[in-house]
């Protein structure tokens, strides 16, 4: 069978139209547009324009499918002004951006070919525009045939391509249209993948550039391939000047063995965490915490390292200050212990000296004064005997704290009460005390009662002389 260009090709099994050599050239031109699609180009407009080359003046509608929302959205609409006006009037808006609710199963039952739509325009919009309105549009615009084909990759439906053919339109090579739409599906998937990759890269760059941690990537030879803004800020350097420099250049000489050991671990495919010091461009040294992982290819060959650096200089300063504080506290505790030991030794010496003085006083009283008092007692004069007993008692308690205790502000004894308390403690009776002090026995008893009240034993069954003796 001869084509319009004089070439013989197969007839279309479904339409009976003949694809000419010129049609194949047109298909090639349309597909080239898809292949040479630039990042900024609109994939849906490119598909519509490619179909226009193949189907002529027919109306073309390209829809994108969103499986999350179950929506078909018109992304490209090519048609005459009359067709566009009629579509806008029926929809109430411009065709581009129009959304139709559709379930995936409604698309999946479509044949993977450019087949006529049952119900024409009404079937194309899934009955979401009244049938009579659709019928009137078809009659007014002379639409004789509506065909649609989903473009998909595997089970993923990406959208649909619809062609509305008018009266007197040229024969359409539908087989070539189907080939183009299948190619368009692959181009759409590639475009979406590129868009997703670009978005992913944009988010990754945003995360990397705004990260609070420094990020440092090196190649297999430990040369710097990338640093983010935070890492460059830590080092007080321009990121560009670091590219190609050895990683080791920026660390203290004393820490190089640690770095080399960690790099060896990375090259074996293992991650690592460690703390080291880096030297800034201005010479300042700061501590950093490093969490690093190896970068491997699909064959697990080592390509480089990826490290995240956290500035821990403040933490290190705090730790050092704490250690210094603990050291000073230890020194102060040691000094305090030494002072306490010296004080204890001094107290022990004072105690020994006090005991020595007390013994000496007691020895003098026992060997010098008591014998004289005994001689006075031997005179057997009652008044002298009472005084000598008092003197002897007081001499024997010369080193006691009785006088200090009863004169304390807590008891607040008067001088007369202190005098009587001392005589009572010495075993002198009230009658003897009255005779010695030249007061009545009743006065002595009154003073004794006041003493008991001030000592808080007035309501207790306790002997006053015994209680006073316990105050030594």
What does this structure look like?
It is built from 17 helices and eleven strands. The protein has helices spanning 21-35, 43-55, 81-91, 104-108, 121-124, 131-141, 174-210, 229-235, 239-242, 256-267, 313-377, 382-396, 402-406, 415-425, 430-437, 441-454, 464-469; strands at residues 59-66, 71-78, 99-101, 115-116, 143-153, 156-166, 214-219, 224-227, 272-279, 285-296, 302-311. β1 (59-66) and β2 form a beta hairpin. The strands form two sheets. The chain has a six-stranded antiparallel beta sheet. It has a five-stranded antiparallel beta sheet with strand order 8-7-11-10-9, with helices on both faces. The protein is of the alpha+beta class. The model is unreliable at 1-16 (pLDDT under 50). Helix content is 51%, strand content 18%.
Radius of gyration: 57 Å
Distance between the terminal alpha carbons, to the nearest Å?
A: 144 Å
- Provide the succession of SSEs: HHEEHEHEHHEEHEEHHHEEEHHHHHHH
Choose one word for the global shape. Answer: elongated
Beta strands, count? 11
Low-confidence stretches: 1-16
Number of domains: 3
Instruction: Could you tell me the CATH topology label of the largest domain.
Output: Beta-Lactamase
Which structural category fits the helices and strands? alpha+beta
Strand order, biggest sheet?
A: 3-2-1-6-5-4
- At the fourth level of CATH, the homologous superfamily of the largest domain is GAF domain
User: Beta-strand percentage?
Assistant: 15-25%
- Number of helical runs? 17
Provide the helix percentage. Answer: 40-55%
